[in-house]
Amino acid sequence: MNTPLKGKDKVLMFRLFQDKDKANATRLALQTTHSIKNSRKADSTATKDGNIVSPGTLETTIDIEAIASDDLTNQVLAYAQKKGLEVEVWEIDFSQAPQNGKYVAQYGVGYLSDWEVPAEVDSNTTIKTTLTISGELVKGLATVSAVDVATVKNFFRDTVKNPTEVAPIDEAPDYGSASSAGQSSTKSN
After folding, report:
1. d(CA 136, CA 126)
2. Which parts of the chain sit beneath pLDDT 50?
3. How far apart are the first and last CA of the chain?
4. pLDDT, tens only, 103-124
């Protein structure tokens, strides 16, 4: 059976392209959604034999929404949009097991074309922006810090200093086990 893909398993990380030699990529806090759109305009030329259609150049954009916060990544992205600076982006796929400690990802470089901060009276302030990629997103394997992995995957951390993240204990009953197989919904008198 096919397993459905879940949006919560795909997380964006960012870095200013000019900082690629001195800073790690960081995750945008409180991200609610993103969508990757590939589009290609087709040009049509009328001839005496009929229309000839030729494909245009592929354009990739990423629409991003998050609840506004004072985290560093939010500030860096707002600055990049205002100053017209190139931004690196990774879409990390946490639904797949890591390979040699790295996660399957898509990578690209582009510019933020807009920065919108709607502040509605009855909800959290949000940010909305669009990143237009130069070229295409390419697939590869990305290193993700233990802190980001733990945040995304909801690992359990012990109370001691410098703890190791471990998977949480599954609280769901094991309906296939022998102990629950012997239990019956009816009681004998």
Report:
1. 27
2. 177-189
3. 43
4. 899 999 999 998 988 877 788 8
pLDDT of residue 155: 53
- Is the whole-model pTM more than 0.90? no
Q: What is the pLDDT of residue 86?
A: 96
What SS3 string covers the chain? Answer: CCCCCCHHHEEEEEEEHHHCCCCCCEECCCEEEEEEEEEEEEEEEEECCEEEEEEEEEEEEEEEEEECCCCHHHHHHHHHHHHCCCEEEEEEECCCCCECCEEEEEEEEEEEEEEECCCCCCCCCEEEEEEEECCCCEEEEEECCHHHHHHHHCCEECCCCCCCEECCCCCCCCCCCHHHHCCCCCCCC
